[in-house]
Design a protein that fits this description.
- The protein has helices spanning 14-32, 39-46, 50-57, 60-71, 78-84, 97-109, 112-124, 133-137, 139-147, 156-160, 168-185, 193-204, and strands spanning 95-96, 152-153.
- It is an all-alpha fold.
- The chain folds into two domains: 1-74, Arc Repressor Mutant, subunit A, CATH 1.10.10.60; 76-214, no CATH class.
- Strands 1-2 form a two-stranded parallel sheet.
- The longest helix is centred in the N-terminal third of the chain and has 19 residues, at 14-32.
């Protein structure tokens, strides 16, 4: 192999380089955590200088914002579900809530590094001094507000009792169950996250109430 200085360099657009940085950093933070991670670790893994890395992220907290706000929060969303045209996404009365959670579960199972990233940061962020402590502390409100921006198709019995405004406890239970299922996914014996979620769905969205709204 020729010395590194003489190897041809692959030119990337700014967007391609930023995407590479996010991909690499996602794996590093998922494995080692954010608190103990150095920017030099990320730069070395990407194959650029630390100064070059800073050009794209600004500082270490800028990297964290890229990972959470530009990567994690923008994938597997209700908008993604709607745009996918998947079963349950397109209906004159709104999207199917159980179908969305199935979509999200399958999305997460296909991207274990994102699940690891979220779990690692969530554990670290119990420290009030962690840079994303407030992100996790206020996440229930943020998720509820975001989901409330979409139209969901609900059984008539729920509509009669107040409709979407009454759904926050169920939404939070579903997300808490999904968080627990994701932890179980990384333990032995191995499980299918999709199959595990099917067990939760039967409890959270029971028959016959939800049968025509899946």
């Amino acid at each position: 192999m020729p010395p590194s200085s003489s190897r041809p360099r692959v030119r990337m657009s700014a967007e391609q380089r930023r995407e590479q940085i996010v991909e690499v950093a996602t794996g590093l933070v998922a494995r080692y955590g954010f608190t103990g991670l150095s920017l030099q670790d990320v730069a070395d893994a990407v194959g650029i200088t630390q100064a070059g890395l800073l050009h794209y992220i600004g500082n270490k907290n800028g990297l964290l914002r890229l990972l959470l706000f530009d990567r994690y929060d923008k994938q597997g969303t209700p908008q993604d579900f709607l745009d996918s045209g998947a079963p349950g996404a397109i209906h004159p009365e709104g999207m199917s809530l159980p179908a969305y959670f199935r979509f999200l579960t399958a999305f997460n199972e296909a991207r274990p590094s994102l699940m690891e990233l979220y779990m690692t940061l969530g554990a670290e962020a119990t420290d009030p001094d962690h840079p994303v402590h407030d992100y996790f502390r206020t996440r229930p409100d943020a998720v509820w507000d975001y989901y409330s921006g979409f139209t969901w198709r609900l059984p008539p019995e729920i509509e009669a009792e107040g409709g979407w405004a009454t759904m926050r406890p169920l939404i939070e239970m579903a997300i808490e169950a999904m968080d627990g299922a994701q932890i179980r996914f990384f333990r032995e014996p191995a499980i299918s996250l999709v199959e595990e979620w099917a067990r939760w769905e039967a409890l959270l969205f029971p028959s016959p109430l939800w049968d025509d709204y899946r």
